[in-house]
Design a protein that fits this description.
Elements lengths: L1 E8 L6 H17 L4 E3 L21 H9 L7 H13 L2 E10 L2 E9 L5 E6 L21 E4 L2 E7 L6 H9 L4 E5 L17 H15 L2 E7 L6 H4 L4 H4 L10 E3 L16 E7 L2 H9 L9 H12 L9 H12 L1
Helix pairs in contact: 1-3
């Protein structure tokens, strides 16, 4: 059995030092609870720049700059301090953070072992929509899994978890424990047109990832604190109607899709904690192994090559492509 936990908490928004102190406190608490793997949400440190979804990019530039100035480096003092805390606690940690690499910022994740060493780091492959005004893209090699004493651990950020090809790549690598790092779901809460950004929709994605892959999923989220709302909305009362405090929804799912943890109040810092048994994966994969007996790579090749064909720098209109597919079938 492995004791794991998905963090649900509010960072000290756009404050790397304050969030670092809180991170260390949470890791210390995980150690006291004998948690062996602790997972944090998307860009937990220094927090998700929600403002970019509320205003034009240039109008959000003060938040973008604060996010940049509070980004950290892979070899910097902050991750070193987090590693030292992990070693003291005897806890493995998956951390979401804004990574600075020279003049660029990336939405990154790092896996730190129980001796404080970085054993895996990765960057979000394709930031979503407005995020592309803030973060660069990660390399395709960042579909990766670490083989650890706890099991084969992988991680993706936010809507990377809904991309079918990302999922299949992780399943092919034999992933057993997956960390799905999410931001707070306090944005556009209750707005019908933004249902795709809701806690309900995205927890279903985490659950389906577990069911489809026959793996455990730790869905970690942040919380929007009441204190940060003014800064997020830049003091604009109209924008305050679109953002709510709270939005936490941390959970752990089993390889059959079953939810293993009770919901935590969305405004409350805490851990969604579960004791997991990797032997459950064997039971799940008796029925469906998406990287083995239930996988049809020949079908994937047929779809990608037979229908889509090679990547064309000057693609034909959709109607012309449809005609070509019809002719090939005849």
């Amino acid at each position: 059995m492995v004791k794991v936990a998905a963090v649900q908490a509010a960072p000290v928004w756009m404050d790397a030092k304050g969030t670092l102190d809180k991170t260390i406190a949470l890791i210390e608490e995980a150690g006291r609870q004998d948690i062996e793997l602790l997972a944090f949400g998307e860009v937990w440190l220094p927090g998700y720049p929600f403002t970019i979804w509320l205003t034009p990019p240039m109008a959000a530039m003060d938040v973008v700059m604060a996010h940049r100035m509070n980004a950290i480096t892979l070899d910097g003092a902050e991750l070193k301090a987090i590693g030292e805390a992990a070693a003291r606690a005897g806890t493995w940690v998956v951390m979401g953070f804004a990574e600075r690499d020279r003049g660029s910022i990336y939405c990154s994740q790092v896996l730190i072992d129980d001796r404080g060493r970085i054993v895996m780091s990765r960057r979000k492959l394709r930031p979503t929509h407005m995020e592309r005004t803030v973060w660069g893209e990660g390399p395709v090699t960042d579909i990766t899994v670490a083989d650890t004493p706890l099991g084969k651990i992988g991680a993706l950020c936010c809507w990377e978890n809904i991309q079918p090809i990302n999922r299949q790549g992780m399943y092919q690598l034999g992933e057993q424990i997956h960390v799905a790092s999410w931001p707070s779901f306090g944005m556009f809460k209750g707005v019908r047109q933004a249902y795709a950004l809701s806690a309900e929709a995205n927890l279903v994605e985490s659950q389906s990832y577990a069911l489809q892959g026959g793996c455990f999923v730790l869905a970690a989220t942040s919380i929007i604190s009441e204190d940060s709302l003014d800064a997020i909305t830049q003091g604009n009362e109209q924008l305050r109607q679109l953002v709510s405090a709270g939005g936490g929804a941390a959970a752990v799912f089993g390889p059959d899709g079953y939810r293993l943890t009770d919901p935590i109040d969305e405004f409350t810092d805490g851990f969604a904690t579960a004791d997991i048994d990797l032997a459950m994966i064997e039971g799940a994969k008796v029925f469906a192994d998406p990287a083995g007996h239930y996988y049809r790579p020949d079908l994937a090749r047929h779809v990608l090559e037979g229908f889509a064909g090679p990547v064309d720098a000057n693609p034909k209109p959709a109607s012309a492509r449809s005609d070509a597919v019809r002719e090939a079938a005849e």
